[in-house]
Amino acid sequence: xxxxxxxxxxxxxxxxxxxxxxxxxxxxxxxxxxxxxxxxxxxxxxxxxxxxxxxxxxxxxxxxxxxxxxxxxxxxxxxxxxxxxxxxxxxxxxxxxxxxxxxxxxxxxxxxxxxxxxxxxxxxxxxxxxxxxxxxxxxxxxx
Length: 143
Known about the structure:
The structure is a single chain. This protein is of the alpha+beta class. It has helices at residues 10-17, 57-70, 112-121, 132-142; strands at 41-45, 48-51, 75-77, 100-103, 109-111. Strand 1 and strand 2 (48-51) form a beta hairpin. Keywords: Metal-binding, Zinc, Zinc-finger.
């Protein structure tokens, strides 16, 4: 017969494990790469792109004001009966009925993500180049 009914010993198990050391207390610890926090990137000027942690205090205040003004711009569902524009001028993709769009004070319409990105770089309408903040401020003065 052969050795098929032989009991297992420490030597047999060590052959299965390979070239491990005899101490069972040592474990290889796999360290994960260090956690990297994603820092948002802002445009303090149209052609100036920097992470938030590299902005001066003045630039941070200016960007916070810009974000605050953007929150006052209405977001509505697109309805083709109200608008003549059939596509977003920024991404050139046609609007879908019921899709969320942002209206600027000059009544131009854009996808929310497209115009928000644009307004973070330049606070003017991409179609008519009218300053959005001036139009917002005059609309509050008349009310």
